[in-house]
Amino acid sequence: MMLLLQQNRRLLLLQLRLLLSPVLLLHLVLLLLQQQHQQQQQHQQRQQQQQQQQQTLDPTPINCSKQQGCPFQLQQRLQDCSSKLLLHPKKQKYKRRQENLAARVSKLQQALAEVQQDIKHAVETKLIPPDPPQPQQQQQQQQQQQQQQEQQEYYPPLPVLRKVPRRMAHAGRLPKPQQDFVRSAAAAAAAAAAAAAAAAVVVSSCIGS
Asked: Coiled-coil regions in this chain (predicted)?
């Protein structure tokens, strides 16, 4: 009997320990959370005190937020970017463009020199008449200008008719009112031709009789 009682006591003690262990754990977790919360509050209070001290020292503080940024930081960033752009522009593109333009200019100059040599050779061999002197060219230009002015005086420019907008008609298509007019005119012409043919038949029958 004594052994049974001892065993029962041991079992009860084990059961009590098993029941109390989660309660103890919860209690410990709650204590840790409270301590962390207190530490955070203390840290926030210290930060607020430091900010108040800075505001008292600096009457015009600069509100620097993450979205807007301080003006000093923005100016510094702008200077850094501009210096980087000045130091490292897109040199390869500009160099390639300059090289391409220089190559084109050299090719055009070579072609011009070849054409000038061909013209000189043709003039020397009398295949082409030499260029007229400059005074004659000026006189020809003046005469052409006078002729144009006289033509404009005698024959004034014709009035410009109103153009049909492109949204109403395109190449090969008339607007709807003009299409209707053309159709009606074609129908009238066909009717007139039929009437004339009938009249001709009547006249020919009368003459034959």
From this structure: 91-125
